[in-house]
Amino acid sequence: MTGNFDIGVAAAVVTDSSILLVQEAKGAYAGCWGLPKGHVEPNESIENAVLRELQEETNITGDISGFIGLRTTQTRHGVGLFLCYKILASNFNAKPQEDEISDLRFYKAEEFDSIEWVSAAMRGFAEVALKDSSLPLIDLSTESKRPYQLVFSDGRITLSEEVVQ
């Protein structure tokens, strides 16, 4: 395999009818809102990266409960892949990461028009997460002895009996 890959992740934490958003503190998107997000480190699983980024940016921990969507693009680093996961939070002791995040709060969908978003894709992920339409992950990590997750567009939660045998 050749080429460079820029892999990013975002965490969609939903409670009741609102979703957690963070406000960027610096860079090109300073002041803009989006989901907690970041890059996958070398030799880190994508699933661990999304949970790590959520905790680093917000102090919230949890577990992945579904897949929201993906964005593909070309970046200056090569192929850009961005994956968004739904997270079931296990604590809500939220506080923004001082260096990168200036604020965080839960927003309802009807407030989205008043927000300056990091990107249209980020708003789209938030809208889908609030519709509770995530796809389940099939975790075959135990069987494969390495991180191994599958997501199918028909929402299946297992492989067929013929494949598993």
Account of the protein in words:
With 165 residues, the protein is α+β, with helices and mostly antiparallel strands. The chain has helices at 46-58, 120-130, 141-144, 161-164, and strands at 5-15, 18-24, 33-34, 37-39, 62-75, 78-89, 101-108, 138-139, 149-150. The strands form two sheets. Strands 1, 2, 3, 4, 5, 6 and 7 form a seven-stranded mixed beta sheet that branches. It is globular, with a radius of gyration of 16 Å.
At the third CATH level, what is the topology name of the largest domain? Nucleoside Triphosphate Pyrophosphohydrolase
N- to C-terminal separation? 30 Å
Beta strand %: 35-45%
**The CATH fourth-level homologous superfamily of the largest domain:** Nucleoside Triphosphate Pyrophosphohydrolase
Average residue-wise pLDDT: 90
Query: Can you name the CATH architecture of the largest domain?
Result: Alpha-Beta Complex
> What sort of overall outline do the alpha carbons produce when their principal axes are compared?
globular
Uncertain residue ranges: none
Rg from alpha-carbon coordinates: 16 Å
Largest sheet: 7 strands, mixed
**Helix/strand order:** EEEEHEEEHEHEH
Q: According to CATH, what is the class of the largest domain?
A: Alpha Beta
Helix percent reads 10-25%
Query: How many alpha or pi helices?
Result: 4
> How many beta-strand elements?
9
The number of domains is 2
